[in-house]
C-alpha cells in the first residue's frame, strides 16, 4: 500500500515541470556518481593487480606436491579426474591469461605448466578406456642422435659442431660437461655419503670400561639403541605376494629409503637388495628384541585369561557391503600412491629436460668460445 502512494506521488511530481526538472537533475547526478565510483574501483583493481610481484609468490612448480597442484584447480578431493574436471581446470587456466586477468605472464605460465601435469595424469588414467586401433600405427621418432627431443635446426647445429671438432677437443669438452652436470648431482652425492660410513674406522658399540649394573642392563641398552635407528618399521599384518614378478611388497620403493622400502624379505624368490652394502651389513640381518619391545605386545596372565580375551573378539565374517567398502578404501589408497609416484616422475622428467637444455647450451657456448 505504501509503494502505491509513492508511485502516485512520483507521477504527480513528474507532471509538474519544476519537479520534473529536479528529478532529471537527481538522475543525472546519480549516473555521474556511479560512473565515477566504477572508474575508481577499476583503477584500484588494476593497480593492485599490476603491483603484484611474481617474486612474492612461489611460482616454482618443483616445490609443490601433487595435492597442492590439485588444490590450484579445486580438485584436492578427487582421486580420479573426469572430463568435466579437466574442462573446469582449463577454464581456470584461460582466466589467468594476462589479457583477461591483467596479471604478469609468470602466473599464466605457472598455471599452464600445472595444467599440463593434470593432462598427462588424465591421459594415463584413461589409456585403458581408449578404443583399440584396427589400423597399423606408424611411429615416427622425434629426432636422432644427440639432439633427440629438439627441433631439426638444433639437431643440425649440434651435429655440425661435432663434425667440425677434433677428437681430443670433443673429449675434453665432453669430460668437462660430464663432471659439471653428472658427477656432482644430488643423487650421486647422496650415494657417496651413504657408503661413507663403511670407510670410517668407527665402532658400532662403545666399549664401556666402567661397567655399572648387570650385564642384562648393558644388553638392554644396546638393544634399545639398535631399535632407535629404525632399521625396520613394523607395519602390521599385510598381504604377501610370493614367487611372482611383484614378490615382496607390491608397492615398495625400489630406490632410496622411502616409506615403502622393503628392508627384509621372507620370500625365497624375493629381491634381496644386495646392491647396497649398508643393507647387507645392517638391514638384512637378525634384529635384537628387547623387553621394551615385548611390552608393546598384550600380556596374558594365564591360559584362561587368553581364552577369555579371544572369546570377546568378534570373529563373524564381514558382509559384502563392509568388505566392498574396505576394498574401495584400499583401492583409493593405492590410487593416491600412484598419483604421487606419477607426479614425482613427471617432476623428474621436467628436471631432466631443463638439465638437457642447460647441457646443450653450455656445449654450444664452449665450442663457440
Structural notes for this entry:
This protein is mostly helical. The chain has helices at 2-15, 17-51, 66-72, 83-95, 98-101, 105-125, 152-163, 167-181, 186-194, 215-227, 277-283, 291-294, 303-311, 320-368. Helix 4 packs antiparallel against helix 6 and helix 8 (167-181) crosses helix 14. The chain is extended and about 95 Å long. The N and C termini lie far apart (91 Å). Mean pLDDT is 70; it is low at 41-51, 243-251 and 254-259.
**Shape summary:** extended
Q: Which residues form runs of ≥5 with pLDDT under 50?
A: 41-51, 243-251, 254-259
- Secondary-structure class: mainly alpha
- Tally of contiguous helical segments: 14
Rg is: 35 Å
Mean pLDDT: 70
Beta strands, count: 0
Distance between the termini: 91 Å
Estimate the strand proportion: under 5%
Helix-strand topology string: HHHHHHHHHHHHHH
Helix percent band: 55-70%
Main β-sheet description:
none
Organism: viral metagenome
Protein name: J domain-containing protein
Amino acid at each position: 500500500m505504501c509503494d502505491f502512494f509513492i508511485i502516485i506521488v512520483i507521477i504527480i511530481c513528474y507532471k509538474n515541470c519544476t519537479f520534473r526538472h529536479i528529478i532529471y537533475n537527481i538522475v543525472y547526478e546519480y549516473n555521474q556518481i556511479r560512473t565515477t565510483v566504477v572508474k575508481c574501483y577499476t583503477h584500484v583493481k588494476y593497480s593492485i593487480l599490476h603491483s603484484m610481484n611474481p617474486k612474492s609468490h612461489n611460482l616454482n612448480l618443483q616445490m609443490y606436491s601433487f595435492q597442492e597442484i590439485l588444490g590450484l584447480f579445486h580438485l584436492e578431493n578427487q582421486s580420479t579426474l573426469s572430463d568435466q574436471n579437466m574442462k573446469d581446470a582449463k577454464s581456470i587456466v584461460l582466466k589467468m591469461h594476462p589479457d583477461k586477468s591483467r596479471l604478469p605472464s609468470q602466473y599464466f605460465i605457472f598455471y599452464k605448466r600445472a595444467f599440463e601435469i593434470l593432462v598427462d595424469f588424465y591421459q594415463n588414467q584413461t589409456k585403458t578406456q581408449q578404443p583399440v586401433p584396427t589400423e597399423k600405427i606408424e611411429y615416427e621418432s622425434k629426432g636422432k642422435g644427440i639432439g633427440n627431443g629438439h627441433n631439426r635446426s638444433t639437431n643440425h647445429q649440434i651435429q655440425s659442431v661435432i663434425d667440425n671438432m677434433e677428437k681430443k677437443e670433443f673429449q675434453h669438452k665432453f669430460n668437462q660437461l660430464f663432471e659439471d652436470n653428472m658427477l656432482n648431482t644430488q643423487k650421486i652425492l647422496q650415494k657417496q655419503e651413504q657408503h661413507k660410513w663403511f670407510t670410517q674406522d668407527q665402532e658400532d658399540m662403545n666399549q664401556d670400561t666402567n661397567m655399572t649394573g648387570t650385564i642384562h642392563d648393558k644388553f638392554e641398552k644396546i638393544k634399545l639403541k639398535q631399535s632407535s635407528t629404525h632399521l625396520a618399521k613394523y607395519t602390521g599384518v599385510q598381504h604377501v605376494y610370493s614367487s611372482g614378478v611383484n614378490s615382496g611388497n607390491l608397492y615398495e620403493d625400489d630406490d632410496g629409503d622411502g616409506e615403502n622400502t622393503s628392508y627384509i624379505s621372507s620370500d625365497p624368490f624375493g629381491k634381496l637388495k644386495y646392491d647396497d652394502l649398508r643393507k647387507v651389513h645392517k638391514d638384512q640381518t637378525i634384529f635384537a628384541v628387547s623387553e621394551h619391545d615385548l611390552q608393546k605386545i598384550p600380556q596374558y596372565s594365564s591360559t584362561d585369561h587368553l581364552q577369555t580375551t579371544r572369546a570377546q573378539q568378534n570373529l563373524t565374517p564381514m558382509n559384502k557391503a563392509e568388505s566392498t567398502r574396505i576394498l574401495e578404501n584400499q583401492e583409493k589408497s593405492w590410487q593416491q600412491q600412484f598419483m604421487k609416484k606419477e607426479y614425482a616422475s613427471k617432476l623428474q622428467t621436467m628436471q631432466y629436460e631443463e638439465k638437457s637444455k642447460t647441457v646443450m647450451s653450455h656445449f654450444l657456448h664452449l665450442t663457440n668460445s
